[in-house]
Every structure is written in C-alpha cells, then in structure tokens.
Design goal:
Layout: H1 3-44, E1 50-53, E2 60-64, E3 89-97, E4 107-111, E5 119-121, E6 126-130, E7 137-141, E8 149-158, E9 165-170, E10 177-181, E11 189-197, E12 203-211, E13 214-215, E14 222-225, E15 229-234, H2 235-238, E16 246-252, E17 257-266, E18 269-276, E19 283-293, E20 305-309, E21 316-324, E22 327-329, E23 336-339, E24 345-348, E25 355-376, E26 388-394, E27 402-405, E28 411-420, E29 430-438, E30 444-453, E31 457-461, H3 462-466, E32 488-493, E33 499-511, E34 514-520, E35 523-524, E36 532-535
C-alpha cells in the first residue's frame, strides 16, 4: 500500500477514535448529571419542613330508581285481563346517620336533571320519605369531618296485575363498571335495563350479556346516556329467549346508576317483579346474604335458587356453603356445581328448611353469584296456579360498614352472616359489629352490639332490635316485635377481624293474597382518604 493510502487509513481510524472518545465523554457527563440530579434533592431537601395536608371527604351521591316501567299493552279493553289494573305506588326513603355527632350530612333530594329540589336533608342524622315519585331521583349528602353515612331506598309496590310485587332496592352510588346477575328474556319474562346518568357529561355504555348457552352476540351495541337523563334498553330486543341472564355494564365519559327491572308471568298469573342491582365483581369467593326462605319442596319450580356464572374462558367447579342459624346446612346436589365457561347456571334450593341463610361460593376461577328468594301467593279468581313473588339478592363485600333504609310501608328484617376469611368460611371465632337504629326524625333509637359465631346466620326484626337492650346474639331472635318506627340501620364493623359480617335487609309487605318481598343491600360508607404530606422543593420553588 502506498504512503498516501496508509495516511488516509490512519486519518479514518483517528477520526473514528476521536468520535468514540467524544461519545464516551458525553455519556459519562450525562450519567454524572443524572446521578447528581438523583442525589441533589436528598441534600437540598434536608431540613425542609413537611406539611401534612388533610384530604377532605367528598360529597356522597346516590341514584334512585323511578317508577316501574309499565307493560306496552296496558288497557287492552277487557278489565279482567288488564295487565296493570292498579298503578304502582312509588316512594323513596332517605336516611343519614351521624354516629359521632359532628354536625355533618346536610343534603338534598332532586330529580335526575337537578332541575328542582324535591326534599332537603337537615344537618345531622335525618330521615325523609318522598311519596308519589314520578321519576328517578338523586340524593346528595355533604360530608362533615367524616364521609356522610347515608342510604336511600326506592320501592315500587303493585298489588295486582302482571307487575304484582314489591320492587325495592337501595339507591346506588354511580359506577363505570357493574355486574348484574338476574332476570330472563324468555316468553314468560321481561327484562329491561335502566341506565340513569346523574352527572354533567354524557356516558357511553357498552354491554356484555351471558345466557344459559354462553355469551350473547350483541354486534357491538353501544348506548349513549345524556347528562341528567335515563335510558331504557329492552334486553329481549338484543338478547332474546334467555332463560337466565347475566350482564356486564361498562361506562366511559361518565358514571351511571344501573338496574334491571325483571318481571315474570305464568300464563295470566303474576310470577313476581323485582329490581336486579349490581353485585360484586368476579372473584374466587362470592358471598350472598339475605337468603330468607320459606318452606319449599325439592323440584318446586317456584323455589328459591342460587345463580352462578364463570364469565371467563375457563370453566370451574363452585363449592357452595350455606350458613344457617345453626351453622353449615347441607343441601344434596348443591354443594359442588360444575360451571362451564360463560354459561349461566341456576342451582335450585328447593327443600332447604325455612330460615335465613348466607351463601358462600368458592372456586379456583373468578365467578359471579346471586340468589332469588320467593314467596307463594294465593290463587286468583281467574288463575289456575298460585301467584309467586320473587326478590333478587346480590353478592356483597364482607366486613364493610354500611347503611340501609327501610322502604316505606314495609317491615324490615336484618339478616347477617358471619363469614371467616380463611379457606373454611365457617370456622375462626366470632364477628362483632355495632348496630344503630334510626327513627323517622333521624334520631338514633337504639345502639347495640352484634356478635355472631363464624359460620352462622341470624335474622331479627329491626323493630325488635331497636326496642331491646344488651348484645344481639342468635338466642335473642325470639319474641314479638314492638313497633319502634325504624327507618334505617347503620352497621359499623370492627376493623381487621378474621371473621367478617355480610348482611342485607329483607323488606316484606303483607297483602291479602300473600307476602311481597325484596332484598336490599347496604349502601357502603365511602372510605376516608389519607392525609398527604408535602414540602417545598427549593429547586423549583413549588410545593
């Protein structure tokens, strides 16, 4: 190679070496700056005072269902077969509880569009009954030093016709994600999804529906719910001929109140009307309280039942444990249930001894669970079979404090089960909680301690509990109830217990042709946000 060529090669390599050294220098400087930047705050912030800023609790908002949706064929000309011979009587009952007397929880009851104020809630514990409700309502309670402890219940009472029944439910905190398990769209049933938007922005809702044969094909259905408006989706129009239903409702842009109006007939005989409300999201353990059942026979089609679904792509086997007054109650054929993926399954509870129970469902895959309780009615003049009343019970969280309102015109029964957190829900000591019973003027009529052994379920008249003294235990269930005028129950759980309480309110109304029933979940108390520690950053001059 010539001298000129050798010199050229040398220059090329020298250039590459210079660039490499320069790159390493830049990289080293960058690392030094990053490391210095990571260390500087620790040095610069030494000695800077920390300020603890409390995070105030937010207002509590509940959405209450409006009147029942009437059948399309009202007034067919023959009064003997009129599906709605009487109008529903719709009320909303509101209670707030202030156990610490901190002067909190003033609030309002208003229509969904906030166009007026229907009722005002005074500061402190209060109660109000809104009669003759004509549309969905919004209950808003302002917090004090702690989150508002409030509840409301909407109740539609129909004494005759296709909608005969007590359709009552606790008003809901708006949500963007809801799972509902109940209802049907076969020829004898009607299911209507009701979406209520109490917010200030439109909410776009998507649905997923499962039936006995698996997921329904909805071809990308989406539903827009305007602010302050309600939208009704007839589920039979998008998922027809489903004898068993499960729904997943997802909302974007806003949060909505969600329920399904479920009604059924047997020929021309009413077979119950109820509101199906959201339960717990899919989990490996589901707990369904409030199973207050009467005597029924094995194979009775109108007997109570447990509804189950494995919504994922993997099937599982559900282990069902029924916790009764004396402990675990065995029901042949119901203890272990095979669940195919995506197929809604009903487990009959016919033959279960009369009493109150808590259902615990365990599986190695996430599942959903709910239950339907029934009450037999009388045979009408034009009926061949007795009427039936039904009430759906949703799955709930265990060990969560909450408040429930007793619907106007009903008698309330507190049903509480003690569920251990371990693998066996029936062993592990006792559960403890404080009960406060609220009167029509918002006052605390009584405060008592509840103690339940793990694996047992108790049921007590709330009026009976409010007029008694001492600790509440299973042995205290006997004896007549004295009218105490209880309109709300506030249950405060003991934190960190190995055994938690799952509870519900069973509301009943006596009619000449039978007892009407609904199961109401407690409204959870919002959790208090922790305080936030902040301090000045001298490099930025901000906090």
């Amino acid at each position: 190679m010539s001298g000129a060529g050798t010199a050229g090669v040398r220059q090329v390599w020298l250039g590459r070496l210079a660039r490499a050294v320069s790159g390493l220098a830049v990289l080293g400087l960058t690392v030094a700056v990053v490391v210095a930047g990571a260390r500087v705050p620790e040095k610069d912030l030494d000695g800077v005072a920390t300020t603890v800023v409390p995070v105030p609790p937010t207002a509590s908002t509940l959405v209450c269902a409006g009147p029942l949706i009437q059948p399309d064929d009202t007034g067919r000309g023959d009064s003997a077969f009129d599906p709605t011979p009487v109008d529903p009587v719709t009320t909303v009952t509101v209670v707030t509880s202030v156990p610490d007397r901190d002067g909190s929880s003033a609030g309002t009851v208003a229509p969904l569009d906030r166009s007026a104020v229907t009722a005002t809630l005074a500061p402190g514990g209060t109660a109000a009954v809104v009669p003759d409700v004509t549309g969905p309502l919004v209950v808003r309670a302002e917090p004090g030093s702690a989150p508002a402890r409030e509840a409301a219940a909407s109740a539609g009472l129909v004494t005759d016709g296709d909608l005969r029944g007590l359709a009552a439910a606790s008003c809901q905190q708006p949500t963007a994600d809801a799972w509902l398990l109940g209802g049907a769209t076969d020829l004898s049933s009607t299911a209507q999804l009701v979406l209520s938007n109490a917010g200030s922005t439109p909410a776009e809702v998507t649905l997923a529906i499962w039936g006995p044969s698996g997921p329904a094909d909805l071809t990308g259905e989406r539903f827009l719910v305007a602010p302050g408006a309600q939208r009704v989706v007839v589920l039979g129009g998008i998922a027809a001929e489903q004898r068993r239903l499960a729904l997943h409702v997802s909302a974007t842009g806003g949060r909505v109140g969600v329920h399904v109006q479920d009604s059924a007939i047997d020929g021309f005989t009413p077979a119950g009307t109820e509101l199906v409300v959201p339960g717990a999201a899919p989990a490996r353990r589901q707990v369904v309280p409030g199973l207050a059942v009467v005597d029924s026979a094995v194979g009775d089609l109108s007997a109570p039942a447990l509804r189950l679904l494995a919504p994922g792509e993997t099937g599982t086997t559900a282990q069902v444990t029924l916790l009764g007054p004396t402990g675990v109650t065995e029901l042949p054929g119901a203890a272990s249930v095979a669940l195919a993926p995506g197929e809604v399954t009903d487990v009959p509870l016919g033959g279960l001894p009369a009493g109150s129970y808590t259902a615990v469902v365990d599986a190695d895959q996430p599942v959903l669970a709910s239950a339907v309780v029934t009450r037999p009615g009388a045979v009408g003049e034009l009926d061949d079979v007795p009427s039936v009343e039904r009430g759906w019970a949703a799955s709930t969280a265990v060990g969560r404090s909450g408040v429930v309102a007793v619907p106007a015109g009903t008698r309330g029964t507190l049903v509480a089960g003690a569920v251990a957190t371990g693998a066996d829900p029936s062993t592990g000591g006792s559960a403890m909680a404080t009960l406060r019973f609220l009167g029509a003027d918002g006052s605390v009529l009584a405060e008592r301690r509840l103690r339940l052994d793990a694996g047992t379920t108790g049921a007590w008249s709330v009026d009976q509990l409010a007029s008694g003294t001492g600790d509440v235990v299973l042995a205290a269930a006997a004896g007549p109830a004295e009218p105490a005028g209880v309109v709300g129950v506030d249950l405060v759980t003991d934190e960190g217990a190995a055994v938690g309480i799952a509870w519900a309110l069973v509301a009943e109304a006596d009619e000449p042709d039978g007892v009407l029933v609904s199961v109401l979940d407690p409204v959870p108390v919002p959790r208090t946000s922790p305080d936030v520690a902040v301090r000045e950053d001298p490099r930025l001059g901000t906090r």
